Amino acid sequence: MFAGNKPENAPELPAPLDTPFTLEELKRYNGSDDTLPIYVAIKGDIFDVSGSRSSYGPGGSYNVFCGKDSSFALATSSLKAEDCHSNIGSLDAEQMEALEKWYIFFQKRYPIVGRVKS
After folding, report:
1. Sheet containing 39-42: which strands, arranged edge to edge?
2. CB 87, CB 58: distance < 8 Å
3. Is residue 19 within 8 Å of residue 115, measured between CB atoms?
4. In 1-118, which ranges are E strands?
5. CA-CA distances (angstroms) from residue 58 to 16, 40, 66, 95, 104?
6. Which one of 11, 68, 93, 116 is separated from 43 by 20 to 30 angstroms, measured CA to CA?
């Protein structure tokens, strides 16, 4: 799943954007409004996962991650809503490595459309 090379069928991605979003603003992009894109934030970077609406949209396996920074949940392989947050201070080295692999996975497949404001 975490192959080091870009997948053959991966789209050419636009240059990353650094549009600022508050966590409150990010909540709107959770897939519940069909007129808005679907966003997942990892380590503060916001990825547009709209191209995988079946997985990230309502009812999708990964919808729990949408509209928030889900760094902790990804690092700990959790699908629990309460684990979808950006507080990664308690992660061990193995979990930090898993988070980095997830970040690279997303980076190769989805455009970065913004950054979570602190």
Report:
1. 20-21, 112-116, 45-48, 39-42
2. no
3. yes
4. 20-21, 39-42, 45-48, 112-116
5. 26, 14, 10, 27, 24
6. 11
Enumerate the β-bridge partners of residue 49.
none
Contact by Cβ (8 Å): 67, 60? no
Amino acid letter for position 108: K
The tokens for 3 are 């192959």
CA 63 to chain centre: 10
| Angle at CA of residue 78, ends 21 and 104, nearest 5° | 60
Place of tokens 């992660």: 91
Q: What six digits make up the tokens of 115?
A: 């950054």
Tens digits of residue pLDDT in 98-117: 999 999 999 999 999 999 99
Cα angle: 51, vertex 55, 57; to 5 degrees? 80
- Stated pTM of the model: 0.88
Q: Is the dihedral of CA 27, 31, 35, 41 positive or negative?
A: positive
